[in-house]
């Protein structure tokens, strides 16, 4: 760090537990927590951030694994993308494993963490639309051992924010035991930042389809009307895969139009302004991803 940013951080604390990390942040309000550091170090090296102190989370073993809890998986915020991409995790939450494998080149997957993806909240974060579609929640660790739980979507939308001294400790994800998919488009061949991504999960118990679109807005978008419409057409008691291809095509277009809508008509009565070519291309990309995601989930 000192090679690239000599004035970045003067104090580095390496706590061994989540509560010790919270205490360290309370003692040093200007400190910045760091796990994989894939986004933090990019900001430091580019001169956008000069933290006075760092609280390293790499030694906190309790947040680096997962366990089962009441029909859910309790995922540690320190889980790396590489770990989530392995076959045993893919059998647990396939869409999140697919997103982890698509998160970037090996050096990024080996360092980047689930919690970092959530807290950084970059629009292109691959895990975010999956967590939104799964309706996951985050468990936040606070001072004096306190814990509170909020939906991931609330944190990403700014409805509920981290208070000073709080850390994301765990992510609670429901285990649906049903098909789920994640697809993304990038601007180049191979791993890269998403220009658009789609996560889709089936929930047979509630006869529902949940879809989230990433990278096209500051936070993942849920096309709720499109979800309800296609769920009403699926034969949940019979052959789910027997769905007219025209329905999957219409679903993709429905999702894309909901997430990238036409401009509102001018109030002065003049001709509506058409979508710019870049937005039209993005809408087509989202439609194709949503169509394919639904087809794969139903196959």
TrEMBL record:
InterPro entries: Diverse_Substr_Oxidored (IPR051312), FAD-bd_PCMH (IPR016166), Mopterin_DH_FAD-bd (IPR002346). Residues 4-178 form the FAD-binding PCMH-type domain. Keywords: FAD, Flavoprotein, Oxidoreductase. Coiled coil: none annotated. It holds the Pfam family FAD_binding_5. The keyword Nucleotide-binding does not apply. PANTHER family: XANTHINE DEHYDROGENASE SUBUNIT C-RELATED (PTHR42659:SF2). This is FAD binding domain-containing protein. It comes from Streptomyces niphimycinicus.
């Amino acid at each position: 760090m000192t090679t690239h940013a000599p004035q970045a951080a003067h104090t580095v604390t390496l706590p061994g537990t989540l509560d010790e990390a919270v205490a360290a942040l309370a003692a040093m309000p200007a400190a910045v927590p760091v796990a994989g550091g894939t986004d933090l170090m990019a900001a430091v090296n580019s001169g956008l951030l000069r933290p006075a102190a760092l609280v390293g989370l790499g030694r906190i073993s309790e947040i680096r694994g997962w366990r089962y809890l009441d029909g859910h998986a309790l995922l540690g915020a320190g889980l790396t993308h590489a770990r989530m991409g392995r076959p045993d995790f893919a059998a647990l939450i396939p869409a999140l494993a697919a997103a982890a494998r698509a998160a970037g080149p090996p050096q990024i997957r080996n360092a980047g963490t689930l919690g970092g993806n959530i807290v950084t909240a970059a629009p292109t974060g691959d895990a975010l639309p999956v967590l939104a579609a799964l309706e996951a929640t985050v468990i936040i660790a606070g001072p004096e051992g306190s814990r509170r739980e909020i939906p991931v979507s609330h944190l990403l939308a700014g409805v509920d924010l981290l208070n000073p001294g709080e850390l994301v400790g765990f992510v609670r994800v429901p285990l649906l035991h049903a098909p789920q998919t994640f697809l993304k488009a990038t601007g180049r061949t191979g791993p890269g930042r998403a220009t658009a991504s789609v996560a889709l999960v089936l929930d047979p118990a509630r006869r529902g389809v949940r879809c989230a679109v990433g990278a096209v807005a500051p936070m993942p978008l849920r096309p709720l009307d499109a979800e309800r419409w296609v769920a009403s057409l699926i034969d949940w008691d019979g052959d789910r895969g027997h769905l007219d291809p025209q329905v999957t095509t219409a679903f993709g277009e429905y999702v894309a139009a909901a997430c990238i809508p036409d401009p509102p008509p001018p109030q002065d009565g003049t001709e509506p302004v058409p979508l710019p070519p870049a937005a039209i291309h993005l809408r087509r990309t989202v439609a194709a991803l949503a169509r394919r995601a639904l087809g794969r989930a139903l196959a």
